[in-house]
């Protein structure tokens, strides 16, 4: 078995495109997922249970079933509801819905970690419910839940690879097609693993640093 | 029209395939548990080499998407002369992947064991291995049970990815039926429901075990 | 330097010039101590003076930095090779200390095993005794410490005093030649201290060789053959209870005892130091 690295350099354009798409999917999926998660948590905690119950089911289903099956339902099952999504849209929607379920649990725990006395105090001063969420609860809980959010974001970056199965042209898919046309599986797949590994190590390290900085800010603002 | 008949017709086949899903995922968790225990012990040992290997292992298998790991084992193992059935390679890969997560979970458990319990075991003459298997592992498992159960449900879900390397299990069979009937929604929803039930059952069993162990972890 | 003087029998434990350092901190500074068969040695001293460290060195739960510890004539933990000492294998350590039992301040019962399993499991695993025989012996030991009726209980279902008695039964089941106790009653509620001390008194009466780190001066006065006062890592005084509690001139010891009595005797004419 010998390595022919030219296969990688010959196809650098496709590979770079794949990387860019992977990062785009990750960023879009995470951003929408965070919004979904926050909305779900707020509705679950601060509105009536007729809205909360179906959302609890949504969270349980997304957490209890494989991401791949969720993608299949959205992409292949979408047309049944008149939703003819491109692989890319279906993939990002899937990632956002999947991540949103986990994010909502994190946000929920965060809201519950803010002492109720503070909310009562704000209420007494006539501040509206949503304003309390925005100005009192969110800033405090973000510090506490940041590690969990970062962890989930890192997990989502790995799930982007699954989108290759519904033919999204992200990095894994690009590499696989190069591999199967050149039969240079070892070079291409090991390169792929290294890229993800390096990427995840960097993102994880960045998250750690961010947590430390925010943690310091929290300590200072309390003193 | 949503086709309930198709669901009823294909349910027996899907359930049969889901047995494989359970077998593959539980097997890989069992093997992964042994790997994870060894890697965790190495990571906490005095040996620098052991700690290095453990850190490398955990970082790699948690840092690379499982799908990529599966592709590597599927395409690259034959290149180095390892010709095993794809199901074996897939389960091995699942085991290595979950082993990395289990090592991290167990690490927390091992560190939570009061050192006096180990000293007591040394004083009555238990060997290093006996202490590991009779004291440390049972206690670490009791201390980390919720996380271990959660990791098991994650593996049930992750096992759907081995369909990509051609192993027949629930997801793969669902794909086969979906493409031949052109009615993907019904089939994938059914498959999803089966996964949901499997994981519900695992979670329930975990809660039963937890209440059974409550007496044995209190101090 | 030798501790072998007048008496005929070889000591079961012979500690010779032992030093123990943690980094730069010197915790034991040249300890000499011999414990003979059927003797009860009580080790007293202020907190942080090195009592636990000494006991843990004798059990080789800590590696001593310098000196020698002999258990029934065998050097513990090291082999001497041309004037240099070499750490021996864990299995060899386990062999030399197989006749040493240890009772911990925090009991250290394994929480996932019943009282019976706590006692029987080491017999099965370390001694290779068949399950039935191991359990029979374990039951006998639990009865001996008055807990035959609690054999099936998990540690979390037992009181502190009961847990400590299981701890003693677990050590006794291995048929040790010497029992080391590190403040066995210090983690107990006051009303539970008596039951544990009674078990220890019975053991002493049976002729068990014991080394007991304790703050129970009454127990030391009644049961000990030798009382050893450790201060700042050295043995500052030792002798019979009478010598140590009544006549000793060492000012640090007098201070220590005075503090103790001020804390513990609320009624003048207490029987503590008497007997
Ligand atoms: N593992 C250790 N590392 C560092 N210092 C220790 C350790 N164990 C004990 N010491 C120190 O050694 C001294 C004696 O401790 P110890 O033997 O437990 O005292 P005692 O049992 O007499 O109260 C204390 O100052 C303690 O801080
Ligand atoms: Mg002590």
UniProtKB/TrEMBL annotation, chain A:
<feature type="domain" description="ABC transmembrane type-1">
    <location>
        <begin position="19"/>
        <end position="202"/>
    </location>
</feature>
<dbReference type="Pfam" id="PF00528">
    <property type="entry name" value="BPD_transp_1"/>
</dbReference>
<keyword id="KW-0029">Amino-acid transport</keyword>
<keyword id="KW-1133">Transmembrane helix</keyword>
<feature type="transmembrane region" description="Helical">
    <location>
        <begin position="132"/>
        <end position="150"/>
    </location>
</feature>
<keyword id="KW-0813">Transport</keyword>
<feature type="transmembrane region" description="Helical">
    <location>
        <begin position="88"/>
        <end position="111"/>
    </location>
</feature>
<dbReference type="InterPro" id="IPR043429">
    <property type="entry name" value="ArtM/GltK/GlnP/TcyL/YhdX-like"/>
</dbReference>
<keyword id="KW-1003">Cell membrane</keyword>
<dbReference type="InterPro" id="IPR000515">
    <property type="entry name" value="MetI-like"/>
</dbReference>
<keyword id="KW-0812">Transmembrane</keyword>
<dbReference type="InterPro" id="IPR010065">
    <property type="entry name" value="AA_ABC_transptr_permease_3TM"/>
</dbReference>
<dbReference type="InterPro" id="IPR035906">
    <property type="entry name" value="MetI-like_sf"/>
</dbReference>
<protein>
    <submittedName>
        <fullName>Amino acid ABC transporter permease</fullName>
    </submittedName>
</protein>
<feature type="transmembrane region" description="Helical">
    <location>
        <begin position="20"/>
        <end position="43"/>
    </location>
</feature>
<feature type="transmembrane region" description="Helical">
    <location>
        <begin position="55"/>
        <end position="76"/>
    </location>
</feature>
<keyword id="KW-0472">Membrane</keyword>
<comment type="similarity">
    <text>Belongs to the binding-protein-dependent transport system permease family. HisMQ subfamily.</text>
</comment>
Automatic annotation (TrEMBL), chain C:
<dbReference type="Pfam" id="PF00005">
    <property type="entry name" value="ABC_tran"/>
</dbReference>
<dbReference type="InterPro" id="IPR017871">
    <property type="entry name" value="ABC_transporter-like_CS"/>
</dbReference>
<comment type="similarity">
    <text>Belongs to the ABC transporter superfamily.</text>
</comment>
<dbReference type="InterPro" id="IPR050086">
    <property type="entry name" value="MetN_ABC_transporter-like"/>
</dbReference>
<keyword id="KW-0547">Nucleotide-binding</keyword>
<dbReference type="InterPro" id="IPR027417">
    <property type="entry name" value="P-loop_NTPase"/>
</dbReference>
<protein>
    <submittedName>
        <fullName>Amino acid ABC transporter ATP-binding protein</fullName>
    </submittedName>
</protein>
<dbReference type="InterPro" id="IPR030679">
    <property type="entry name" value="ABC_ATPase_HisP-typ"/>
</dbReference>
<keyword id="KW-0067">ATP-binding</keyword>
<dbReference type="InterPro" id="IPR003593">
    <property type="entry name" value="AAA+_ATPase"/>
</dbReference>
<dbReference type="InterPro" id="IPR003439">
    <property type="entry name" value="ABC_transporter-like_ATP-bd"/>
</dbReference>
<keyword id="KW-0813">Transport</keyword>
<dbReference type="GO" id="GO:0005524">
    <property type="term" value="F:ATP binding"/>
</dbReference>
<feature type="domain" description="ABC transporter">
    <location>
        <begin position="13"/>
        <end position="257"/>
    </location>
</feature>
<keyword id="KW-1003">Cell membrane</keyword>
<keyword id="KW-0472">Membrane</keyword>
